[in-house]
Amino acid sequence: MAHIDYYFATLSPYTYLGGTRLEDIAAKHGATIAYKPVDIVALFGRTGGTPPKDRHPSRQEYRAQELRRQSKKTGLPLNIQPAHWPTNGAPAAYAFIAAQNAGGGDLGKLAHAITRCVWADEKDIAEDAIVRACLEEAGFDPSLADSGLLEGAETYAANLEEAAERGVFGAPFYIVDGDERFWGQDRMDDLDDYLSDIKA
Which of 37, 104, 166, 196 is the right S-S partner for 93, CB 3.0 to 4.6 Å? Predict the structure, then answer.
């Protein structure tokens, strides 16, 4: 059985545009998923990347065009300049980690709900009420937003270290069975093909 380590960011538009397709692909191939939220800005700093606001205007313009195209391609609505971005994505990441530890809900749905709040629903995921609503939508106890904050912070920091050590430099990022790496939601067809090949 294949295993996918999934590095994602609560503030990443490309994580949002991935929707829940990863979960569909994993189910198709009987693969397991370990969800690993990371601080994407800190990861950029560790791996030679540049936060969007600090990029050359030509890169910012291209990013905006690409987001528009990918939104159309996926059928997921996206606001190129959302009202609450950037914001503090850590509380939502901590809540996600608490939900993962608690079990009982749909983690793929939770990741999508959080990122959808930022990129489509004009909601601030730094607010407890928004995080609680996401937890509830995905079948988790909303009170998880208030629990495990220390453990969440420690796991979030550990995920960053692990990501940097394993060659992760953006989000979403998928690593299959230890080292086969795929960067970006637009590489999920390649991920799907790879899982088909290793099953054959």
Answer: 37
* In the block, residue with structure tokens 């629903």: 121
- The residue with tokens 């059985």 is 1
Full pLDDT tens readout for the chain, 200 residues:
999 999 999 999 999 999 999 999 999 999 999 999 999 999 999 999 999 889 999 999 999 999 999 999 999 999 999 999 999 999 999 999 999 999 999 999 999 999 999 999 999 999 999 999 999 999 999 999 998 889 999 999 999 999 999 999 999 999 999 899 999 999 999 999 999 999 76
How is the chain split among helix, strand and coil, in percent rounded to 5? 60, 10, 30
Helix (H) or strand (E) holding 80, with range, is: none
What pTM was estimated for this model as a whole? 0.96
Cα 84 → chain centroid: 17
Residue 49, burial from CB neighbour count under 10 angstroms (0-12, 13-18, 19+): middle
Q: How far apart are the C-alpha atoms of 160 and 41, rounded to whole Å?
A: 10
User: Which tokens belong to 86?
Assistant: 């950037």
Spatial distance between the Cα atoms of 104 and 36, rounded to a whole number of angstroms: 18
Superfamily in which the 3-199 domain is placed by CATH: Glutaredoxin (3.40.30.10)
Sign of the alpha-carbon dihedral angle for 84, 86, 91, 95: positive
Indicate the domain borders of the chain: 3-199
